[in-house]
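Hey,
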Amino acid sequence: MTTVVQTPNTDRDTDIELLGHLYRRAGFGATREQLERYIERSYEDTVEALLNPDPAADIPDDVLERYIHGEGPPIFVGSWLYRMINTECQLQEKIALFWHHVFATGLVKNEHVLSAKNQIKMFRRNGLGDLRTILNDLSRDPAMLYWLDNNENRNGEPNENFGRELLELFSMGVGNYSEQDIKDASRAFTGWTFEQPPPLYPHGYYPAKFVFRADDHDSGEKTFLGVTGNLDGGDIIDIIVKSPASARFICRHLYNFFVADEPQVPSWNDVPPTDPEAVAQMEMTFLETGGDIRSVLRVMFNSDFFKAARFKKVKSPTEFVVGVLKMVRSRSEMAPGMTKYAGAIELMGQKLLDPPTVEGWHTGAEWIDGGNLTERVNFAVDEIGDGSAPGIQAIIRRMQESDAFASADSLVNAALAETGAVEISEITRGALTEFAAETDGEDATSRVVRLLRLVVSTPEYQFA
């Protein structure tokens, strides 16, 4: 078993490390300067600020589109990544990524990037609200309706794709409903479709709009999870949100995404949660609040189990890339060039806007097979570069102003603190300390840059 070495810390350092943990999970990390600023308020107040983002602190769409404009998928992914890096509304972007994973919808089929873009905007807008609203909006979303064929779901000719996945992968999980429940849920969503937008050429993308076609809707009696009546899609969603099975399923998703890696979703019917008590605590809040996601996250972020879960999650490619870019601060100004990072994330195994299946991405250790790990290390080392990036220059200045260069040990400790207070094994620490000692005598910039490159190449740096 690997022994993890804890570096002794002052109380303030410990508080900053806890705050860093919160920002890696509720956002995409924070620089040391940001953490020094955030530490002026209490942990609980910081959680509230994340849960209730100030619209004035966000990045306006029109400003962003002046610099990252166009209609291709890499362009939109690039603008979304810019938001992740630079917005103060970190949880707003993180929850959009969460729902994008749970309600996986792929461009590979619909090829309508404006619908994909609008779906992410929808998650940004409603993702911290209640599950009833989220599922109602999702059921009216043209990208989802087309992705799962609900535009072909008509009275007398029901298409069960959306109804099945709504229960299996979006809300309840296998084993909590019957085949008849799927059939009647699908009948309830007949007639929920969208207007076909104008052709792409020659004028570009126009939004697709939800429409309800009453002549295609099945108004007959249906029975869903024991409730009988002339049920429509909204009734189905109301019943789903009240179900304990939905509370368990959604809270386990939240735990897997924000707290610690769980087994993959298909096994959840057979494999219990890693921390059943933690998930049960979240479930209770979910049921008490009618599925309010903000309330569940408030309980989770303030819990002991969350605070103790440092470095128990493998960073997704998006988390990894955005975290590195936040550290080096090479993309903190409005400028072209963001689109290349869409390709970098795809090479690491996560193609935003185009998940591999309706199940989303497999997470945890599956993010870091041999090829993907190499791409990660190469990316991080290249972004640190020669040390000229603003973030790296700031790290060097802070280390020069402290006692970081007093010894090899202190230099390693400072480098780890600057890269997120990474917890490392004895073997890794030994290698870093030996390197730091060997470079004694080199100029400060060279020593720090080379050491930071080694830190981001360690296995431990892959964890959040």
